[in-house]
What we know:
Low-confidence stretches: none
Strand content: under 5%
Helix content: 10-25%
Mean pLDDT: 76
Largest sheet: none
Order of helices and strands: HH
Shape: flat
Amino acid sequence: MTRNDDRDALPVNPVLSVRGADGAASEHTPAEQGDAPADFANRPIPPTPSTEGLSAGEVSTMLGGDASMTEANEALGTAEGLETITES
């Protein structure tokens, strides 16, 4: 990489410092959790996520493709001896 010498150097501010004026590190104050929202007790419980896996068609829809591409990739992987179909 070459330096671009046509640029002016940035000015240095001698007043700026990493530490405070006394040179000591400031005391660490951890973040704390705030109060719960006022309507927390009245909020509906969110639905429980499904434990079912997604089908190839659902995944393709989410990714913007069609199911035939997913099936073709699975068939190609199987023909090549790869284990492309997995479940978690």
